[in-house]
Write a structure and sequence with these properties.
alpha+beta; Pnp Oxidase, Chain A; seven-stranded antiparallel sheet; 21% helix; Pyridoxamine 5'-phosphate oxidase N-terminal domain-containing protein; Pyridox_Oxase_N; Split_barrel_FMN-bd
Length: 343
């Protein structure tokens, strides 16, 4: 919108054109005007408006004193009437009517629609605003939704005639993620707490300045440092943080050293097997005509200890005699015949 005669062909204000000249951005600004600035809503802009769930509203009174406000609702609460006009409902608020009061004095209004979730883009709509009763606007546009928000019905609408529509750069728009759904909004509620109470403490400070006690029955309790009965501002809604990363897997515990098997105990040596007793010498046969000799008395076999002693004595005797000396009983017959090992 331009009020200067020398630059009536240019969009925007005289002040912005003067700053463009001073800062050397005229060429960039002219390119933006030519490529991005429209005096109507194209198809993609209309689709963007139809799915918007919020916007920021700028108004000013007859003296140029500005005000900004926030509006929100389900997708479609901003209704596209045609490619040159939109309308949004006005619901019951705090009873001040600052925005609509400014519109009655100064129809110029600016809307900024933001998409923080999907496209991360914004749309500016500047134009002239008019307050229209629900019945009157519905007679012209019967397609208006009846229930623009659950449990709320608009008594008034604000119709904005589009003069400028242009993009808001995505470069500095943060990406916000919707929080999980909570309890339904208190549309139209007069409950002190559900409307926010005295969150910033302005009412408490005003009462303290007047020396008045705090109100009773607000259901908001008292807070630290507040006068008895003053409303405690509700705690801000915590922003849901992203889920923490999963903890790292636990380090593997050191495995205990294998226990060596017990040393094998050797089995006990087998018991010595007793040698069979030597066979008795055959009975001597008497020559014909000679008497039989008396039977020999059996001699008990020597024990193992006796055998070892006899063997050691025999070895010692053999070493003493040498290899050429015959044993003392050589040529004599052993009294028992076969000796120790037999012949």
């Amino acid at each position: 919108m331009n009020n200067g005669d020398d630059s009536a062909r240019l969009p925007g204000s005289d002040g912005e054109h003067e700053l463009q000249r001073q800062l050397g951005s005229e060429h960039r600004a002219d390119r933006f005007y030519e490529e991005q600035l429209l005096d109507h809503l194209n198809e993609r802009m209309r689709e963007f408006v139809a799915r918007a769930e919020m916007f920021f509203l700028a108004t000013a009174d007859r003296n140029g004193e500005c005000d900004s406000s926030f509006r929100a609702g389900p997708p479609g609460f901003i209704h596209v009437l045609d490619h040159r006009s939109v309308a949004y409902p006005e619901y019951r608020g705090n009873g001040v009517h600052a925005s609509m009061g400014n519109i009655t004095e100064n129809p110029h209004a600016g809307m900024l629609l933001m998409d923080f979730d999907r496209a991360r883009i914004g749309l500016h709509i500047n134009g002239r605003a008019h307050i229209v009763p629900d019945a009157e606007l519905r007679a012209l546009h019967p397609e208006l939704p009846r229930d623009t928000a659950p449990g709320r019905r608009a008594e008034l609408w604000v119709r904005v005639e589009v003069e400028e529509a242009y993009i808001h750069c995505a470069k500095h728009i943060p990406h916000l993620v919707k929080a999980p759904k909570r309890t339904a909004r208190a549309w139209g509620s007069d409950d002190y707490r559900r409307k926010g109470g005295d969150f910033f403490g302005a009412a408490r400070q005003a009462r303290e300045a007047r020396g008045e006690p705090g109100p009773r029955g607000t259901g908001t309790g008292t807070g630290p440092g507040a006068a008895p009965g003053t409303a405690q501002p509700p705690a801000p809604v915590p922003v849901q943080a992203p889920p923490p990363p999963p903890p790292p897997p636990p380090a593997a515990l050191p495995q205990p050293a294998p226990v060596p098997p017990p040393a094998a105990v050797p089995p006990p040596p087998p018991a010595p097997v007793p040698l069979p007793p030597p066979e008795p010498a055959p009975a001597p046969v008497a020559a014909p005509g000679l008497p039989l000799p008396p039977p020999s008395v059996p001699v008990p076999p020597p024990r193992a200890h006796d055998w070892q002693e006899q063997a050691e004595r025999a070895l010692a005797e053999a070493e003493r005699r040498g290899p050429h000396e015959p044993p003392p009983d050589a040529g004599r017959e052993h009294p028992h015949g076969a000796g120790w090992f037999g012949r």
